[in-house]
Structure formats: C-alpha cells, structure tokens
Amino acid sequence: MRRRAMTRRVHSARTALLLAAAIALTPVQKATAQMTNPTEATPPVPAHPYVGMWVTPDGHIRHELLPNGRYDEARGARASAYRGRYVVRGNHIDYWDDTGFTADGTFVDADTLHHGGMVFRRQR
Predict the structure, then answer these.
(1) What is the pLDDT of residues 31-85, one digit of tens each?
(2) Which of 49, 77, 97, 100 is the most exposed place for a label (fewest CB within 10 A)?
(3) Please, which residues have CB within 8 angstroms of residue 68's CB and are 6 or more apart in sequence?
(4) Which residues of 45-76 are buried (b: 16+ CB within 10 A; e: fewer)?
(5) Is the pLDDT of residue 87 over 50?
(6) For residues 52 and 121, what is the distance between their CA atoms, to the nearest angstrom?
(7) May I ask which residue range the UniProt record assigns to the signal sequence (predicted)?
(8) Is the pLDDT of residue 107 over 80?
(9) What Cα–Cα distance (Å) separates residue 16 from each residue in 21, 29, 60, 81?
(10) Model's pTM, two decimal places?
(11) pLDDT, tens digit, for every residue of 2-14?
(12) For the CA atoms of the chain, what is the radius of gyration?
C-alpha cells in the first residue's frame, strides 16, 4: 500500500512538471517550434513581385524567394546553407531562418534588394 502511494506521488509530480513546462513556453518559443518543422504546411502567402532568385554581384550568395513564403539561400558551393520563411510588406522583407535567426531587407527597386549589408540583384 505504501509503495503504491509513493508511485502515485512520483507520477503526479512528473505530470505536474511536464504541464508546467508546457505552459511556460512563451509565444515566441511556440512560434519558433512551429517554424522549425519544414514538413508543416506553410500558410498562403499574398502575391508580391519579388519571387525569384536574388544574387550578390560576385555570385557567392544566391537567395531564392519561393512563391510559398519560404526562401532557400546558397553560399558558395554550399547549397541550401540557410532556409526559412519570409514575409513581404510593401518594399520591406522580414526573414525567419529555420534555426531561429531573424533578418530583414528593403527592395530599393524592382531588381535590387538591400539585405544584411549586402546588395542583391534579381537574376532573370
């Protein structure tokens, strides 16, 4: 009888700890956890004129904005060095990398993107 009561207390304590940990997740942690699963469906993305390949003048960084709100960035010989999601509002773009890194940029015209201190040109 005594052993059974102790087992119940241990299970109850474990359950309480798990519930507390789940409740303690901040909205940012929840959003990050959802964003890091590449198999999850990406919500519909409003159309914008910037979908396509963007490249630095030396060709080292190639940044592809996909129509589904995801991006895929290659660096040198490293394909898909960074991946994540993005949102375009007007001429501003916000990025959320799958690893949790965030960045932004500005489309200064239809063929020029300023991002991370670099200039990207649209590749046609």
Answers:
(1) 444 444 443 445 566 789 999 999 999 999 999 999 999 999 999 999 999 999 9
(2) 77
(3) 42, 45
(4) beebebeeebbbeeeebbbbbeeebbbbbbee
(5) yes
(6) 11
(7) 1-33
(8) yes
(9) 9, 20, 51, 40
(10) 0.65
(11) 555 544 554 455 5
(12) 22
| Structure token pair of residue 67 | 């129509």
* β-strand pairing of 102-109 with 61-65: unpaired
**Token pair listed for 86:** 């993005």
Q: Write down the pLDDT at residue 124.
A: 87
Rounded Cα–Cα distance for residues 110 and 99 (Å): 29
- Furthest C-alpha separation in the chain: 76
Q: Using alpha carbons, select from 55, 76, 56, 77 the residue that is nearest to residue 65.
A: 55
Could you give the CA distance from residue 118 to residue 21 in angstroms, rounded to a whole number?
40
Tokens linked to 50: 């910037």
Q: What does each C-alpha distance from 40 to 26, 35, 51, 66, 122 come to in angstroms?
A: 20, 8, 21, 16, 29
